[in-house]
Amino acid sequence: MPRSKKSKARGGEKHPEAEGKTQSCGGAQAIAAAAAEEESTTSSLQCKDTTQSLPGAESCSTPEEPRRVPTIATTAVFSRRTRLSEAFNSQHEHRVFAYEVPPFTETPGSNCLTRKASLLEQLLLYKYNMKQLIMKEDILKIIHRSHHDRFAEIVKRASERIELIFAVDLKEVDSVVPCYNLVSKLKLPNNGRVRAGRGLPKTGLLMNLLGMIFLKGNCATEEDIWKYLGTMRVYAGRKHLIYGEPRKLITKDLVRLKYLEYRQVANSDPPRYEFLWGPKAHLETSKMKVLEFLAKVNDAVPSDFPAYYEEALRDEEEKAQGMDAARPDTTVKVNTPPKDTLSITTPPMVKYVKFFPPDKKI
């Protein structure tokens, strides 16, 4: 190859690390640009001080049922999960992207604050996928200066919707420069990713599985689990954009990490299998926390489901009693002698006087 062509070819190549940095900056800039464009197109609309409720659906119970059963997840959450999975395709995680929000239809329930929260969701998940902290200044670029007084409300909306899908909390990082990070509700490796590398958290799937097991009497058959996951468009043997190969994730990885227990049903022929909570799940969460998660999905509170709420309360009491029993006794015991024991007294002090003979002169 002529020398000039070689130099041109080399000049066209980019260092992978530099390319990654460029893509990282480009992704955040793309989201900020989308926010600016959205602001310009909706500047004529007035933002009303309305409270946007969390995405939820009606409970699957009817008035005739003896107890209300919380739905594991709602259609709104599932559709949101699908859009996010399409945006954060693990096969293209090094590509610059900002997931595309479907166009909003002007309905009484939607307003510009909701759109701002949706754009902020893109930024939060993009930064999480790139394993970067979320700088406050980047958030302010998404939220137009005319809405800076609603900063806390917009951040709350975005973080709550992400919490419902991925079971992660937005927490402020203690640093000199104001910044935030998405933290998994459970202590899964790599902050909820299970395996090293980029990607979105698997905590939401695990919390839903734990909830399903709880609602099924603390033991769910494999058939029930896959039937439920089918409503999330998660199928055994079919690679998922967020969860990878779900059978391996659920029956191997989460079992190996001791968050799930996967065992054969006794005396089953042909063999059938069932799922239970693993020891790590019992250690890091509780039935009450899982019920709180399910209640949020249903836009409710745990006490709205009395039967499960009472069981969760009993579980909390048992755990508290177990901790009290395991706690070492730190009281100091002083052994006092019995009353009939003879006391030993020290002899009185004797005063010694030096004797001088009379014939000796001092």
According to DSSP, the number of beta strands is 6
Spatial extent as radius of gyration? 32 Å
Residue stretches low in confidence (pLDDT < 50, at least 5 long) are: 5-24, 40-65, 74-110
Helix run count: 13
Write down the secondary-structure element order: HHHHEHHEEHHEHHEEHHH
**Distance between the first and last residues' Cα:** 124 Å
Largest sheet: 3 strands, antiparallel
Task: Determine the fraction of residues in helical runs and give it as a percent range.
Answer: 40-55%
Chain-averaged pLDDT: 74
Strand order in space, largest sheet: 1-3-2
Q: Which secondary-structure class do the elements indicate?
A: mainly alpha
Strand content: 5-15%
- Categorize the overall geometry: globular
Structure report:
- This protein has helices spanning 3-12, 16-41, 75-87, 112-129, 136-142, 151-166, 189-192, 203-215, 222-230, 246-256, 279-284, 287-297, 306-326; strands at 134-135, 168-173, 179-184, 220-221, 260-264, 273-277.
- It is mainly alpha-helical.
- The chain contains 13 helices and six strands.
- A three-stranded antiparallel β-sheet has the order 1-3-2.
- The longest helix has 26 residues, at 16-41.
- The protein is globular.
- Mean pLDDT is 74; it is low at 5-24, 40-65 and 74-110.
